[in-house]
Design brief:
The chain contains ten helices and 23 strands. It has about 425 residues and is α/β, with parallel strands linked by helices. The chain has two domains: about 210 residues, FAD/NAD(P)-binding domain (3-Layer(bba) Sandwich), CATH 3.50.50.60; about 210 residues, FAD/NAD(P)-binding domain, CATH 3.50.50.
């Protein structure tokens, strides 16, 4: 089977790329291992809602048209939205087609699947950034009898064993799950590492409105001093609750969640050891949040738009007990479950092209894999813009990459014509 471009993945990124390829009259196929929006279906917990308001669900040629623009989609609604986009596009799609290998050929790439092999001049990797959960090596030292779960395995608190829960990681997922479990009646201890604190609403507007209006979401990868650092930052501590309440460490401690520092180790006796840097980590998160809010205030002042917004706000500093515990005996504390909210890594085990670094990340320049002409990546953190992993961000990235791809295909065709004429 032959086509010009093979797009791997039929989530929002792969579908957005399909839209732009169609607009440029580039023949292609979209391969999906499961159903449309497979990751949303299989790797999310029951109560999860989008961190972005409904109005921000914008894909090429398609956007939210409901009566609740400031609400937040449930997982079922998110899946339905992406399914609706696929129906609108009617892309050349092959579902239940698992890619087992991508390798270079003389005239492009061979994409081997369990349904046959596709040959294309170019390949777009749109499988997303959240493929395989990252579980630290310390997990190997967890005492027998304690249940271990990752965020993609967690569904709801009722499925957990009775007893206390240690949640490791305090970004958006860890904070939301910690709150849900605590409210279920199970005592939660939250191991806090680096995190990004932000209010849900600031001066009467959603935080995402500010990021959008001030242009921060559109900041490009080549405008950032340390792009590797920017791409590794955890997500904002946010949740899409109907009442638009904040979810931060103060909100968690107010309902009884106990805070400890980063999990540093587990002894042979079954005792957890925590970093003593909890206060410093929280002070840094508070500092960065205030810098962000200052930038919003400066944007308002520079445009003399103060009358449009509520007064300037500042939020209480993160409350940390005087001497946070540096250790925890799992048995005495009644910990029966550890939930690893420690992020995800890419899974390119099927990519037989030498373009990965030692951590398994693909080396690229804004999604263009320069070491392998004709190979592109899409849907990764800060790929071309700060908003690259948002539903609202993949469309702009896909537009840029489809333009590069269009030029590449034209150059490749011209090169072949020259070779043929010479022969």
């Amino acid at each position: 089977m032959r086509t010009s471009v093979v797009v791997i993945g039929a989530g929002q990124a792969g579908l957005a790329m399909s839209w732009w390829l169609a607009r440029r009259s580039i023949d292609h196929v979209v391969l999906e291992r499961g159903e449309i929006a497979n990751t949303w279906r299989t790797q999310r917990w029951d109560s999860l809602t989008l961190l972005t308001p409904n109005w921000q669900s914008r894909l090429p040629g398609y956007e939210y048209e409901g009566d609740d623009p400031d609400g937040y989609r449930t997982m079922g609604q998110t899946i339905a939205f992406i399914e609706g986009y696929a129906q609108y596009l009617a892309p050349p799609l092959k579902t239940h087609t698992t890619v087992t290998s991508v390798r270079r050929t003389d005239d492009g790439y061979a994409v081997v699947t369990d349904q046959g092999t596709w040959h294309g001049q170019a390949v777009v990797l749109a499988t997303g950034a959240f493929n395989v959960p990252v579980v630290p090596k310390v997990a190997e030292s967890v005492p027998a009898g304690i249940t271990q779960l990752t965020t993609d395995q967690y569904r709801n608190a009722d499925r957990l064993p009775p007893g206390g829960v240690l949640v490791v990681g305090a970004a958006a997922s860890g904070a939301q799950i910690a709150e849900e479990i605590q409210r279920s009646g199970r005592p939660v201890t939250l191991a806090v590492g680096e995190h990004v604190r932000a209010p849900r609403v600031y001066r009467g507007r959603d935080i995402q409105w500010w990021l959008d209006a001030t242009g921060l979401h559109d900041e490009r990868y080549d405008q950032v001093e340390d792009i590797a650092r920017a791409r590794s930052l955890p997500s904002f501590q946010l949740a899409g609750y109907a009442d638009r309440r904040d979810i931060d460490l103060n909100s968690l401690t107010s309902i009884g969640v106990k805070l400890v520092g980063r999990l540093a180790g587990i002894t042979q006796e079954g005792k957890a050891q925590f970093s003593g840097s909890l206060r410093n980590v929280c002070e840094l998160a508070d500092l960065k949040m205030n810098r962000l809010l200052n930038s919003f205030d400066e944007w308002v002042s520079a445009r003399r738009r103060e009358a449009e917004f509520e007064p300037v706000q500042r939020f209480e500093a993160t409350r940390i007990e005087a001497s946070p515990p540096l250790g925890l005996d799992f048995q005495r504390a009644g910990i029966q479950t550890i939930l690893w909210a420690t992020g995800f890594r890419l899974d390119y085990t099927w990519l037989d092209v030498p373009v990965l670094d030692r951590k398994g990340n693909i080396r690229h320049d804004g999604g263009v894999v320069t070491e392998a002409p004709g190979l592109y990546a899409l849907g990764l953190p800060f790929l071309r813009r700060r908003k690259s992993t948002l539903i609202d961000g993949v469309g702009d990235d896909a537009r840029d990459l489809s333009a590069h791809l269009h030029t590449y295909l034209g150059t490749s065709a011209a090169r072949k014509s020259v070779v043929t004429a010479g022969a």
